[in-house]
Specification:
By secondary structure, this protein is mostly beta strands. 0% of the residues lie in helices and 54% in strands. It contains no helices and 29 strands. The strands form 6 sheets. The protein has a 9-stranded antiparallel sheet with strand order 23-24-25-26-1-2-29-28-27, with no helix packed on it.
């Protein structure tokens, strides 16, 4: 595939003046792939889930070329992360299993959920500091996989449907956001028990969640177009409204400099928020209905999947 590179200036939506120039690049993936989530790999490539084609994809940004690995019959992958073993770990809703794709052989191994959780609608995953993978399922499920033993456990989520984004803090705590349940949860990684935390106000719809370097939790509020920060130590929320919108805050990611990135469906843009200055910068897509559903990154790069345009986007600073 051919990459399109656009040099752009980020316009500050709250504050005065303009930001320094950054480079925005787009990479086409196969038409109909509908890339959902992305995960930059240590070797410089980028994994993505081709939800529309039941495959795991790999992009080489140096050449713009992609490769897709079929995950199996009726596959419908959602999330992808890179594990401690450098493999791609995928929440594979179509087969109701966690899938591991070997980075060298490209072999696919499935870890099916227990039979009593036959329709989890798997969403997102994270590894804790002990190498255990934790996952969410929107149909009221969360659980874990031990890669060493292959054991898979699942638990019923409090309030049922809703578990969505999930994250691990630097201290090893695992938290997830419940979109339909309208809360966030801390998982006891030993017992598997869930501790619910209410949002700052009812009805915000927490969708994705990410930890910063201090263990503060940043949450995208889909229903209200806001980002929330929760301090687990002091049990305090703080909330900022996205410029110009009152709904549609989807993805959230905190980079290595503790800047917060979100995708805004209503303005068709990716936004960067600086907690120190409380200012936003906006990076609009050059195509309509980009629909960026996940953000991830590595130093100097933030990646997203434009599910609506069959492209990956990277913002390099």
């Amino acid at each position: 595939m051919i990459s399109i590179v656009v040099a752009a200036f980020a316009v500050i939506a709250l504050g005065i003046g303009e930001a320094s120039a950054v480079q925005v690049s787009y990479y086409e993936v196969p038409r109909g792939a509908r890339p959902h989530d992305v995960a930059p790999a240590p070797d410089g490539t980028v994994w993505y889930t081709a939800q529309g084609q039941g495959a795991a994809g790999i992009l080489d940004p140096k050449t713009g070329k992609t490769m897709q690995i079929p995950l199996g019959p009726d596959a419908a992958p959602h999330g992808v992360i890179v594990g401690p073993d450098r493999a791609a770990w995928i929440t594979e809703g179509g087969q109701n299993a966690i899938a591991r794709v070997d980075p060298a052989s490209k072999a696919v191994k499935l870890f099916p959920l227990p039979k009593e959780f036959s329709d989890a609608n798997l969403n997102t995953a994270t590894f804790d500091r002990k190498g255990i993978l934790w996952f969410t399922g929107q149909n009221g499920v969360y659980g874990r996989v031990d890669p060493a033993s292959g054991k898979v456990e699942a638990f019923k989520a409090p309030k049922g449907v809703g578990p969505y984004g999930i994250t691990t803090t630097p201290s090893g705590d695992v938290w997830y956001a419940s979109l339909a349940g309208d809360h966030i949860v801390k998982i006891d990684t030993v017992s598997g028990d869930a501790l619910m935390v209410a949002p700052p106000k009812p009805g915000v719809g927490p969708r994705r969640i990410w930890s910063d370097s201090k263990g503060l939790l940043w949450v995208s509020f889909w229903n209200t177009g806001e980002i929330g920060r929760y301090d687990p130590l002091n049990k305090v929320w703080k909330v900022w409204s996205l410029p110009k919108v009152k709904r549609g805050c989807y993805a959230i990611y905190v980079d290595d400099k503790d800047k917060v990135w979100v995708s805004d469906f209503e303005t068709n843009a990716i936004l960067r928020f600086d907690p120190a200055t409380e200012k936003f910068e906006t990076f609009p897509s050059n195509k309509r209905r980009a629909d960026v559903r996940q953000l991830a990154g590595r130093p100097g790069e933030v990646w997203g999947a434009e599910s609506g345009t069959d492209r990956l986007i990277v913002i390099r600073d």
